[in-house]
Design brief:
By secondary structure, the protein is of the alpha/beta class. Helix content is about 45%, strand content about 20%.
């Protein structure tokens, strides 16, 4: 049986509010029985989402930029060491059935755009006014702006059912 894999992407230097939302996303993903995929590191959104999923009994895959497990979140169950740095962003989005971008940073923007280019649905939470303005310029039926974790999980359920 193939697991539904939901990628949660976001900045390593996330604010407390964004990290809290990421942890709630991880919990919600685990409660749906889905597998969480993150960038695997022990910082920001990656660590918070992993902690939420792990605490809720979920399975966590971490796609690490390094060639070893140094800096890995302790909440990752399945580490994938790539040794390819930020190029792993493409692996993150292509391996996810859908992506939730929680917060924004340079790496997160690259993941959002790579996912949209690949035709993956991307749920956008905690975007800045400037990132929203840029992303709304793209004519895409795959970018979905939400204002809460609950809305993100509800939309993710609908998108998973459509797939």
């Amino acid at each position: 049986m193939v697991h539904i894999m939901v990628g949660v992407m976001g900045p390593g230097n996330a604010s407390a509010e964004v990290a809290h939302s990421a942890e709630q996303l991880g919990t919600g993903i685990a409660e749906q029985g889905w597998t969480l995929l993150t960038g695997g590191r022990r910082v920001g959104v990656m660590d918070a989402a992993s902690r939420g999923a792990s605490t809720a009994g979920g399975l966590v895959v971490g796609v690490l930029p390094s060639s070893d497990r140094s800096g890995m979140s302790p909440h990752v169950n399945i580490p994938i060491c790539t040794g390819i740095g930020s190029a792993r962003n493409n692996i993150n989005v292509l391996s996810s059935d859908l992506v939730i971008a929680c917060g924004v940073g340079m790496g997160t923007l690259s993941e959002i755009l790579l996912a949209a280019k690949a035709g993956k649905h991307v749920i956008l939470l905690h975007q800045t006014e400037s990132s929203e303005a840029v992303l709304q310029e793209f004519d895409s039926n795959t970018l979905h702006f939400v204002s809460s974790v609950e809305e993100a999980i509800t939309l993710a359920k609908k998108l998973v059912e459509l797939a």
